[in-house]
Amino acid sequence: MTSPRTAQSDAMKDLSTQMLWDELLAQDPESVAEKSGASLRLTDGGPVFTLELLGAPCELDGRSRTVVSPPGRPELDRNGRIVLLTYLTKSASGPAPGLADREVGPFALPSGQLFFRLHHELPHAPLARAFSDDPGALAMASEAVGARGHANLAWRARVLPFAEIYWYLDPADDEFPAAARYNYDANIAFYLPLDAVFALTCMLANTLISLKS
Predict the structure, then answer these.
(1) What DSSP string describes the chain?
(2) Parallel/antiparallel/unpaired status of strands 56-61 and 66-68
(3) What is the DSSP string of 53-98?
(4) How far apart are CA 191 and CA 204, in angstroms?
(5) Taking the CB of residue 37, how many other CB atoms lie within 10 A of it?
(6) What is the C-alpha to C-alpha distance for residues 213 and 208, in angstroms, rounded to an integer?
(7) What does the pLDDT look like over 200-209, one tens digit per residue?
(8) Average pLDDT of 27-35?
């Protein structure tokens, strides 16, 4: 049985989704595509945007206001759809400077120290638990989402056209258990607010774990 609080949260997310569609479809679609790095197909019924999400194409159809998940990937939940719509609308309304090609920690993002320390714990533990005994499986899963090696037991991936995430696995030793951590392209805040950065990181971690062979 769905709790009243869950039902209220779902209703708010549905409203947020519709408001994001309204905002997106009010923009010039060619400008949206240029500033976000999306592919664009114009139809009589409205624009259709294609974004590379975790190395696979994801289609946002303005005609039907639907999001089609990448082939072979699970259907995106509300949070996933909100992340993609937010990315497009924020790209269109801001300076959209592209990638900085420089990584920063989550606390270095604007307001990141407060947001990530007190409100949203990044999925360090799930990734470490899943791969602590098999770093090779993490390497294979990382390659499957289009990542490339960044250092020893470290990868980076362009999870959206102008949003990169770096992730690291620190193996266990005699003193400390295995640990995982995440960094970001320094310009990611131009494309996603912190709650969307958090949701995208969780999506990445869940995808990597699901790909473990």
Answers:
(1) ---HHHHHHHHHHHHHHHHHHHHHHTS-HHHHHHHHT-EEEEETTEEEEEEEETTEEEEEETTTTEEEPPTTSPPP-HHHHHHHHHHHHHHHHS--------EE-GGGSTTHHHIIIII---SHHHHHHHHTT-HHHHHHHHHHTT-EEEETTEEEEEEETTEEEEEEEE---SSS--EEEEEEETTGGGT--HHHHHHHHHHHHHHHHHT--
(2) antiparallel
(3) ETTEEEEEETTTTEEEPPTTSPPP-HHHHHHHHHHHHHHHHS----
(4) 17
(5) 20
(6) 10
(7) 999 999 999 9
(8) 97
- What the block records as the tokens of 128 is 């470490």
Distance between CA atoms of residues 70 and 76, nearest Å: 9
Amino acid at 146: G
pLDDT tens figures, 141-183: 999 999 999 888 999 999 999 999 999 999 888 888 889 999 9
Q: Centre a 10 Å sphere on the Cβ of residue 46 and count the other Cβ atoms it contains.
A: 13
Could you give the CA distance from residue 64 to residue 29 in angstroms, rounded to a whole number?
A: 16
HSE of 172 in the Cβ direction (CA atoms, 13 Å)?
11
- The burial of 32, by beta-carbon neighbours within 10 Å (0-12 exposed, 13-18 middle, 19 or more buried), is given as buried
In the block, residue with structure tokens 């959206």:
160
pTM of the predicted model, to two decimals?
0.90
Tokens 């270095």 found at = 108
Domains located in the chain, CATH noted:
4-93 (no CATH), 103-210 (3.30.310)
